Amino acid sequence: PLRHRTDLQMTGRLLLHVTLLGSLAWGVQPFSQARYPSVKVALTRELGKNDKLRYRLRELRPDLDVEELPCIEHCELASGEAVPGLLREQSFDYVVVTSPEAAEVLLRLLETGFGALEAAPPLRLAAVGDATARILESRGLAADFLPSKALGKVLAAELPPTGSNRVLYPASKRAATTIQDGLAARGFEVTRVDTYDTVPAAWTEATAEAAKATSVVTFASPSAVKVWTEQVPGARQMPVACIGETSAKRCEELGYEMA
């Protein structure tokens, strides 16, 4: 069954703050046709990664106009090539994987560095969130630890000490130091390697026009919030749906009214 938490309040502007564990979907019944006769919903994740949410929204409300308007894209970093060598030369008690994208990049690095996943050394994986764990499991790598809440700070607080407490953390270049700082404070030795970066997606004039006509914009990352804010006039006056606490926090920092 889907596990989710949805909080809805309307005070002048609409805030739909959604935190979902395991699936990106929410009940959109609060958008009444009387108040919002034609709701245009913008999905801002990387191109091709909005399909599950788009399908679920259309399933629940076929009248919604759901459009993919990617704000970000990911690029792998040369520094990530160090990961296979570190795994060959050193012993780690955990490899920490914090997002589906981080999982996909790690899998590619293992395949490239070892020739095949099966040739990589056994890994004890700590994953943030069910979605991240599913990416790993789809390629035969089970997540050995998931925190009670899908947040990096919770993983840092709950990861069980074991062995030498050495952790390899393949991360986004833009990831905060929350995990390594939290683990270090508990006595873990953390080796962080930035394996990928998140950059703004290229927008055409048509993309910009579609963004202006949006009724509700969804964010699943702080980077997407930043790009949308810079690209769309009057962005802060738009109703916002945030998936995840970090996205909501970034909206607050950039001046969105969080009702």
Notes on the structure:
Helix content is 32%, strand content 26%. Residues 1-36 have low confidence and may be disordered. It has helices spanning 51-60, 82-89, 100-114, 130-137, 152-158, 178-185, 205-212, 222-231, 245-253, and strands at residues 3-11, 13-21, 40-43, 65-68, 72-76, 94-97, 125-127, 143-145, 166-172, 189-200, 216-219, 240-243. The strands form two sheets. Strands 1-2-12-11-3-4 form a six-stranded mixed beta sheet, sandwiched between helices. It has a six-stranded mixed beta sheet with strand order 5-10-9-6-7-8. It has nine helices and twelve strands. It is elongated, with a radius of gyration of 19 Å. With 259 residues, it is an alpha/beta fold. It has two domains: 3-71 and 201-253, Rossmann fold (3-Layer(aba) Sandwich), CATH 3.40.50; 75-198, Rossmann fold. β7, α4 and β8 form a beta-alpha-beta unit.
SSE string, helix = H, strand = E? Answer: EEEHEEHEHEHEHEHEHEHEH
Physical arrangement of strands within the biggest beta sheet: 1-2-12-11-3-4
Task: Classify the secondary structure makeup into a structural class.
Answer: alpha/beta
Average pLDDT? 85
Taking the sheet with the most strands, its summary is: 6 strands, mixed
DSSP helix count?
9
CATH class (first level) name of the largest domain: Alpha Beta
Enzyme class: lyase
GO molecular function, one term: uroporphyrinogen-III synthase activity
EC number: 4.2.1.75
Pathway: Porphyrin-containing compound metabolism; protoporphyrin-IX biosynthesis; coproporphyrinogen-III from 5-aminolevulinate: step 3/4
